[in-house]
Amino acid sequence: MIVVHHLNNSRSQRILWLLEELALPYEIRRYQRQATMLAPETLRKVHPLGKAPVITDGDRVIAESGAILEYLAERYDRQHLLSPQNEEAKLESRYWLHYAEGSLMPLVVMRLIFSRMGKPPVPWLLRPVGAAFGNGVRKGFIDKQLATHRQFIEQHLAHRAWFAGEQLSLADIQMSFPIQGLAARGGLKEMPATQAWLDKVTRRPAWQRAIQQGGELDLTGSDN
Fold first, then answer.
1. What is the mean pLDDT of residues 172-196?
2. Fold adopted by 2-77
3. How far apart are CA 70 and CA 93, in angstroms?
4. What's the Cα-to-Cα distance from 186 to each of 114, 119, 162, 180, rounded to whole Å?
5. What is the Cα–Cα distance from 102 to 92, expressed in whole angstroms?
6. CA angle 216, 10, 121 (to 5 degrees)
């Protein structure tokens, strides 16, 4: 039995979506974030880093979103429902699968961290300085970088139904979390194609079942 060690408001929601798309049986073991927004120490009993997502499948323990998605698709997606076989689409899917965590998420997380430098747990005496520093870094570097990425994503989706073309793929599942992060922390008003893609995602029955299983996402303050 596949067990998803599920942290609320985390990347592990993507794993639930994949499992629902493939109609695979699974069990959820739930973990709640602490006041610091970090995962509880009990998650370290599953994997030394104590991060989500992580799954167990028999004796196997697998962490990292991309690795989990690829493992589940290779082992259980016999009909290639989420793995395009066309060479060009396959390369597109692989690119976006790795882009999500390698290029986009670091900026999304950095923006969150610097936006909180004027808030607890920063000592109150340092909050004004922290807020000023954080705002400076965001406006001078992070927001400019994110604007480039927003344009890149929007231009890509303007000519495709899904990230790898006409077929839903692992790329869409992987990209769902950072795009929801962008939507939660800045909106998608200037990204109509991306908003249309997100609307399609959230209308999918498998997505809705995954949300019912894992809980609603609030990405305004999570970074795991």
1. 92
2. Glutaredoxin (3.40.30)
3. 11
4. 15, 19, 22, 10
5. 15
6. 105
* Single-letter amino acid, residue 197: W
- Region at 184 (left for phi over 0; alpha for psi -120 to 50; beta for the rest): alpha
Domain assignments of the chain as residue spans, ordered by start = 2-77, 87-204
Assign 172 a pLDDT band (cuts: 50, 70, 90).
very high
Q: In which residue are the tokens 């989420």 written? A: 82
Which has the closest alpha carbon to 171: 106, 94, 73?
A: 94
What gap in Å lies between CA 17 and CA 19, rounded to an integer?
5
- Cβ contact 6:30 at 8 Å: yes
- CATH number assigned to the domain covering 87-204: 1.20.1050.10
Is the link from the previous residue into 53 a cis peptide, with omega within 30 of 0? yes
78 CB-near residues (< 8 Å, 6+ apart): none
pTM of the entire structure? Answer: 0.89
Distance linking the first and last C-alpha atoms of the chain: 25
Q: For residues 146 and 186, is the Cβ–Cβ distance under 8 A? A: yes
Whether 173 has a pLDDT exceeding 80, the answer reads yes
> b/e string for 161-191 if b means 16 or more Cβ within 10 A?
ebbbbebbbbbbbbbbbbbbbbbbebebeeb
* Residues whose CB falls within 8 Å of the CB of residue 204, separated by 6 or more in sequence, listed in order: 21, 168
